[in-house]
Amino acid sequence: MSDNTIGSEYHAKLLSIFKADAARTMLKKNNPSLTDDELFKLTSDDNLEATLANRDLVSEADVKLINKSAEKAADPYAYDDEHNSGNINQSDAAVYIRPEFYKRIM
């Protein structure tokens, strides 16, 4: 017997959120003088990719670490390669998801 599993339709957005969070952490480490407002502006949806491409702010190694961290954090919400099941099961429902999403699993 196996659990029903499902992926989140919000995986791409979650990946973006986790990437921005990891980028803020790295930016603060590399540039301690940046304020919270500046960090959030640099990592907004409109500015994140440009910020990650700016080698004065983050190195190429930093960007690889940011991407790897974000992918690892978002992985539980992903669909499998065939896009027909994911990694969230009924046991996870109490932690990961809203009631509407739980109904889709059941």
Helix fraction bin: 55-70%
**Which overall shape is indicated by the principal axes computed on the Cα atoms?**
elongated
Calculate the mean pLDDT score and round it.
Answer: 83
Following the backbone from N to C, one meets helices and strands in this order, namely EHHHHEHH
Strand-residue fraction? under 5%
CA-based gyration radius: 17 Å
Class from secondary-structure proportions: mainly alpha
**Total DSSP helices:** 6
**Uncertain spans:** none
**Secondary structure: number of strands:** 2
For the largest beta-sheet, the strand count, sense and barrel status come to:
2 strands, antiparallel
State the end-to-end distance: 15 Å
The neighbouring-strand order within the major sheet is 1-2
How would you characterize the overall build of this protein?
The protein has 106 residues and is mainly alpha-helical. It has a domain at 11-78. 56% of the residues lie in helices and 4% in strands. It has helices at residues 11-30, 36-42, 48-53, 60-74, 93-96, 99-105, and strands at 5-6, 88-89. It has a two-stranded antiparallel ribbon with strand order 1-2. It is elongated. The model has no long low-confidence stretch (mean pLDDT 83).
